[in-house]
Structures are given as C-alpha cells and as structure tokens.
Amino acid sequence: MDRHGDKFVSGAKDHLVKVWNLQTGKRVEKCNFKHPAPVQCVRISSTRVYSSCDRGLVKVWDLESMSLLRVVDAHRSSVRCLFLDELHLLSADVDGQVMAWSSSSDVKRCLMTFKHPKEVRSVSLVFLRVLTGCVDGKIRVFNFLTGDCLKVITAEAESVGILSVHFHDNGIASCCHVPHNQSRVDLGFRALRLRADVQAAEVKQGACHAELHTFGHFPSKISVVFSLQSM
C-alpha cells in the first residue's frame, strides 16, 4: 500500500492494483490496473502508479490517462519491493537483485544492478547511496553511480532477517522479524549508533555501530535505529 495526497493505492493476490480516493473512501473506477500474477508491491506519485508482481514484472501506469506507460521485464523472480523518487525507480527481487531505472519512460535500459546473496526486502536511495535490507540480516550501502558495495552492516542474525529499512533525516531504521520460538527477552527495540556518512564520497570499512538501548516490543518484531555520523 502507498499514499500520495488524497489518493491511496493497494495491490493484492487477485492480481489487481486499485486506486482509492481518501476523501470519499471510494475506488477510482477507471483505474483498471492488472498483473498476470499476485501483486507484491505498489507505489504512487502525483501522476503515476508503480506496481510489481510474482512474475517479476514492474508496471508503470499513468493516473491521468489511466493507461499503461511501461513494463519492466528484467527480473526473473518475484519483485517484492519498489522505491521511487523524482528521477529514479528501484526494484528488488527474491533472488537478491536490485535494479535501478530512470523514471523517464524514454530510458529503457537498466542504470545499475546491485547484487545480494539472498532476497532483498527493502530498498531506498539517499544521497546517491542505495540502502538495502536483506533476509540475511544485513543492511548494505552501495554507491549508486558505480555499483560498489561501500559498507555491510550486520543488523540481526540471519535467523531473524530484515523486513524493511527506512531512512529519515540522519538515521536508518530497520524492522526485523523474530522467530516465535525465541524468548521474550530477545524481542525488543534496539537502538544502535552507526558511524557512517552516506553523504560522503567514500565510506570507510570497519566497525560501524555500538548498541545503545533495548526496549521491550512483543511479539514478533525488532526495530533497529542507527544515527548517521561522519567518520
């Protein structure tokens, strides 16, 4: 699900992408957007709707004409997360491949590919740095222009896995899943300080964080917050 202004977009296993008016609570009937497989992720901007599905397709729809503008058929597995800004679209699949695209429909080629050992659950682009959350429990920072992996941050054990990563101001927050067979003591909100500057031209390798606090949070998720500082 995603929201922009007074519009809200949703996607489901029925292969449909629906746009809703938040003022009326009713569906925008002319938006007949559909995929050939269950929809996994949706995003909306002021003029477009972006959606992905289990078939590995990413579709871009125009909200004014209600027409399909573009189909990205480059992934070979389910695309579970999307990121967009004014210039770029990033898509990530269960095979661990993140692909960057121009938001312009005139540019068809992939701008860059960022590879991971396992499924990527979350992707963001900040200051020409691609931030990803992988099910192996690691947050990775890539140089958007070169594709180089600048830093690997172990946020959680692989058995825990990362559900999503979010960037806000000078911090990175990740949401992680905890297996039900772990004790309640291990569940919580864990705050860490990350010594990394994603705005710098280069990011040094080395020790990157230290635990600050742990707070009870039950039953199944851990949130990890990093404060970004210059090295």
Explain what you see.
The chain has 231 residues and is mainly beta. The chain is built from no helices and 21 strands. The protein has strands at 2-4, 7-11, 16-21, 33-34, 39-44, 48-53, 58-62, 67-72, 79-84, 88-93, 97-102, 112-115, 120-126, 129-134, 138-143, 149-154, 162-168, 171-177, 189-194, 209-215, 221-228. The protein is globular, with a radius of gyration of 18 Å. The two termini are 36 Å apart.
Task: Give the key terms.
4-stranded antiparallel β-sheet, 231 residues, 21 strands, 5-stranded mixed β-sheet, disordered C terminus, mainly beta
Helix count from the secondary structure assignment: 0
How many angstroms does the end-to-end distance come to?
36 Å
Mean pLDDT: 79
What strand line-up does the widest sheet have? 17-18-21-19-20
Shape: globular
Class based on secondary structure composition and strand pairing: mainly beta
Helix content: under 10%
Reading the helices and strands in chain order gives EEEEEEEEEEEEEEEEEEEEE
Q: For the CA atoms, what is the radius of gyration?
A: 18 Å
Which stretches are poorly predicted, pLDDT < 50 over at least 5 residues?
A: 182-231
Largest sheet features: 5 strands, mixed
- How many beta-strand elements? 21
Work out the strand percent.
Answer: over 45%
Keywords: WD repeat
InterPro entries: SCF_subunit_WD-repeat, WD40/YVTN_repeat-like_dom_sf, WD40_repeat_dom_sf, WD40_rpt
Pfam family, one: WD40
WD repeats: 1-30
